[in-house]
Design brief:
20 helices, single chain, 5-stranded parallel sheet, 7-stranded mixed sheet, alpha/beta, 532 residues
Length: 532
């Protein structure tokens, strides 16, 4: 077995960590690049320059090697030349060299390297948002580049523009002496993500847009809060099966994650909980059914409509309102929201006098509202045994219902609804309705620094609630490391606290829709009565 001196061992350890694309290449004497007809005269010079840190010299030598190859076989040489130019902090040269690579000439991880070097070059040119766009949408399937991709994505969107002067992955043209001989054990100091966080999100498929907003919020908080450790993002897809999630979870543990955040899909959360007590703390980004018990060190956090309903019940009870009638869609969302309102309202001394469930696709609410209010149009009267209406509806239904409530004489009743009823701007039909939502939405004057940093992020503009959700998830995850704890934490999504079964509850703010805009309502004294 060959003997290695300590410097050589250090170099091999770094090669094992930073050069996974090379690790499986057998060290054959006189090895050449894949597809190359033979050793290029400039190749030895390029390799030597790279190893002594002369990246400008390495780039020039790789360029000469590329010119010696037939066009169809030169792509990897051009890629190596461009990567070396990034190491030399010459982004214009790197981008120019990359233009020599024909479309579709590289695939798999090599194409990922091309995208990454373009993004690194744009960061060196102080163009962070263009750099973020140049990166692969997901690092899943690029194990050798995943950490660099997500780190650069975070820096591009939220962090500083300080890029490393030396690329952390060398081209696949490093000399064979830099690779471990077959059977030689290469010492590795620590797993790839040791002490860091694994973020499990469905970044491909139908949930991709939502997952991107959560990811961007999480990374924004990670960099703004100066959090320690690396965040590694795993794409678990959006298939109905939880297999991809469980596989990514196992991989994250193997790679040294100290905290796991995710997944986002309810079914996947349930599947992870069924694995038993996790090896590291888990913050799931959804809630399981209340019938399923969470194992130890397994928290649940989500943007549940139940939080909005419970807060509406608390606000109404704090105003002295005691008898409610409810309009709710005949759907799982509607039933869960109504049940949360009823349970909390009853715990605070209130009563639901009647509930009317409407079909999901209903267009005409006149008969539904008239019957619930027991309106006698010819006499100009309605029922008088209630003092509020709770409407579970999305914006289009809330507008139709609001118009009917006024038409049938309920305009003077306090009307509480869900955050989904607010369409982003006031309208005549929902004017006067009250709803409870997160501070990020209701209080534009709050989180001024965070808003300024996130103002240009497409995900924040498209999905502001999910961006805030990701931001708070990072703050909670930070409390899962040794020596930290979570009690009552003010966040973008509400006042956060841990309830039963590891479920994190959100205390929300309430507002009333008025023609001139939203008006925040005074929060009544803390109500008496335990949460269900």
């Amino acid at each position: 077995m060959p003997k290695f001196n300590p410097p050589a061992l250090v170099f091999l350890a770094l090669a094992a960590i930073l050069l996974p694309a090379c690790a499986s290449t057998p060290p054959v004497e006189g090895a050449v690049l894949p597809g190359a007809p033979g050793p290029a005269p400039a190749l030895d010079e390029a390799r030597s320059a790279w190893l002594r840190g002369d990246f400008a010299g390495a780039s020039a030598a790789y360029e000469r090697a590329a010119l010696e190859q037939p066009p169809a076989q030169a792509a990897e040489f051009w890629l190596a030349a461009a990567e070396a130019a990034v190491g030399a902090r010459d982004p214009d040269r790197a981008l120019g060299l990359a233009q020599h690579i024909p479309a579709n000439a590289l695939g798999g991880e090599k194409f990922g390297r091309l995208q990454l070097l373009r993004a690194e070059s744009l960061m060196l040119k102080n163009q962070p948002f263009e750099a973020a766009k140049a990166l692969p949408a997901s690092s899943e399937g690029l194990p050798g580049l995943a950490a660099r991709i997500e780190e650069l994505r975070a820096r591009a969107l939220f962090g500083s523009n300080e890029a490393s002067a030396v690329p952390t992955t060398a081209p696949a043209t490093l000399p064979v002496a830099a690779q471990a001989p077959p059977g030689e054990i290469v010492p590795v100091a620590e797993p790839l993500n040791a002490g860091g966080t694994a973020l499990l999100l469905p970044l491909s498929g139908s949930f991709a847009a939502s997952a991107e907003a959560v990811r961007d919020g999480y990374l924004a908080a990670h960099f703004r809060n100066g959090a320690a450790g690396r965040v590694r993002v795993y794409d678990v897809g959006s298939a109905a099966s939880a297999d991809a999630t469980l596989s990514a979870y196992a991989q994250a543990l193997r790679e040294g994650a100290a905290v796991v955040v995710g997944p986002l899909r309810k079914e996947s959360v349930a599947a992870m909980a069924q694995q038993g007590a996790p090896a590291v703390p888990v913050l799931a980004l959804n809630y399981m059914d209340e019938t399923q018990m969470a194992p130890p060190r397994f928290l649940q956090f989500g943007l549940a409509p139940e939080d909005e309903a419970r807060t509406a019940a608390e606000h109404a009870a704090g105003q002295g309102l005691r008898r409610a009638i409810v309009l709710s869609p005949g759907s799982d969302w509607g039933e869960r929201t109504y049940t949360a309102f009823r349970q909390r309202f009853q715990a605070l001394g209130g009563q639901v006098a009647e509930v009317s469930r409407y079909p999901v696709n209903q267009k005409d609410f006149s008969a539904t509202v008239r019957n619930l209010l027991r309106t006698q149009k010819d006499a100009g009267t309605r029922r008088t045994d209630v003092d509020l209406v709770f409407v579970v509806a999305r914006n289009i239904d809330a507008r139709l219902i609001g118009a009917m409530l006024r038409f049938y004489y309920a305009g003077n009743l306090p009307i509480y609804t869900t955050a989904a009823a607010y369409g982003g701007k006031p309208d005549n039909d929902t004017a006067g309705m009250r709803f409870c939502d997160m501070p990020w939405v209701l209080a534009p004057g709050s989180f001024a620094a965070e808003r300024a940093e996130a103002a240009e992020l497409p995900a924040q503009r498209r999905e502001p609630r999910l961006f805030a959700f990701g931001y708070d998830a990072q703050a909670i995850a930070a409390t899962l490391h040794p020596g930290a704890s979570l009690s009552r934490m003010p966040g973008m999504t509400g006042l956060l606290s841990v309830g039963g079964n590891g479920a994190i509850r959100r205390g929300l703010q309430c507002a009333e829709i008025r023609p001139e805009g939203l008006v925040l309502l005074e929060t009544p004294p803390a109500p008496v009565g335990a949460l269900p």
